[in-house]
Write a structure and sequence with these properties.
The protein has about 280 residues and is α/β, with parallel strands linked by helices. The chain is built from twelve helices and seven strands. α6 packs parallel to α12, α7 packs parallel to α9 and α9 runs parallel beside α10.
């Protein structure tokens, strides 16, 4: 049975705990042995070999969908389902309208370090083929609380961590979206430049990473409260993610196009499976 239909069935019945167990029931169970969870890299097929494409939206309240429950995931799900009927949004969190696959890893109010601390478990639990990573807004908004000076280094470590744990997964990394406050937006712009440099360097190392410039996608008029997008802004984000995903699939899976070298090798020494 289609993964989304299984999730939807249990959700409509109000059985949240069973809905979260739907993926293992459908045949994607993963060993929870501590040795496996702590020491092994994920062994899974690439996006080109996936029967059902698992996509993990990963980030903060914008991924969660503040101001519009479901956020960009509403339109993204609709567009993906039209072209890729066997797609599964994955993650431990669930919200949004019942018409979409509501799973995600959007954690409101959280900064880069929180994502670093939780990402290993989330990856092992959901085994995504594609990760949509957009984080850093809270580091920008609260620079003293989250040590903004170290934000780029933490994000670099996070990208390295994801690609070390899941070397066959594709990681699409977005820049920090536009903010209304000019000072905060200036920090967002600088961090976004760092994000692009991080992605370029990781790609040159053979990592499966690509960049989406969300900072350029949104304008101040696309914000509902100065930070979070309104419905139109979320739709713009969805279109940007959709373009990045479909472009990636065409480049990786079209044999006429040269692909990134295989990552079935040990990760670089600076990348850690653990932090």
């Amino acid at each position: 049975m289609n993964t989304y239909l299984i999730k939807l069935l249990f959700t409509l019945l109000g059985l949240t705990c069973f809905a979260k167990a739907a993926v293992p029931m459908a045949g994607w169970a993963l060993s929870t042995s501590p040795q496996i969870l702590q020491l092994s890299r994920l062994q899974q097929e690439s996006v080109c070999d996936a029967t059902t494409l698992r996509i993990m939206p990963l980030g903060d309240s914008i991924t969660h969908g503040a101001t519009v429950p479901g956020g960009y995931r509403i339109r993204l799900w609709e567009r993906l389902l039209f072209d890729l009927p066997m797609v599964d949004l994955v993650g431990s969190e669930v919200n949004g309208p019942v018409t979409i696959d509501g799973n995600h890893e959007g954690h409101p109010g959280k900064a880069i370090q929180f994502i670093r601390e939780g990402v290993r478990g989330w990856l092992y639990a959901s085994r995504p083929h594609i990760v949509l990573l957009m984080v850093g807004t809270n580091d920008v908004l609260y620079p003293e609380a989250h040590d903004f000076a170290g934000a780029a280094a933490r994000l670099d470590a996070l990208v390295g961590q994801i690609t070390a744990i899941a070397p066959n997964s594709e990681v699409i990394v977005a820049s920090v979206p536009t903010l209304q406050d000019p000072i905060a937006n200036d920090r967002a712009r600088h961090l976004s430049q760092d994000v692009q440099a991080i992605v370029d360097r990781r790609a040159d190392q053979g990592r499966r990473v690509t960049f989406v410039d969300m900072h350029r996608v949104l304008e101040v008029g696309d914000l509902a409260d100065g930070v979070h997008p309104n419905a139109g802004g979320y739709n713009k984000m969805a279109d940007a993610w959709y373009t990045a995903i479909t472009t990636l699939l065409a480049e990786r899976c079209n044999p006429a196009v040269e692909t990134v070298p295989s990552t079935d090798v040990a990760p670089p020494v600076e990348d850690s499976l653990f932090n």
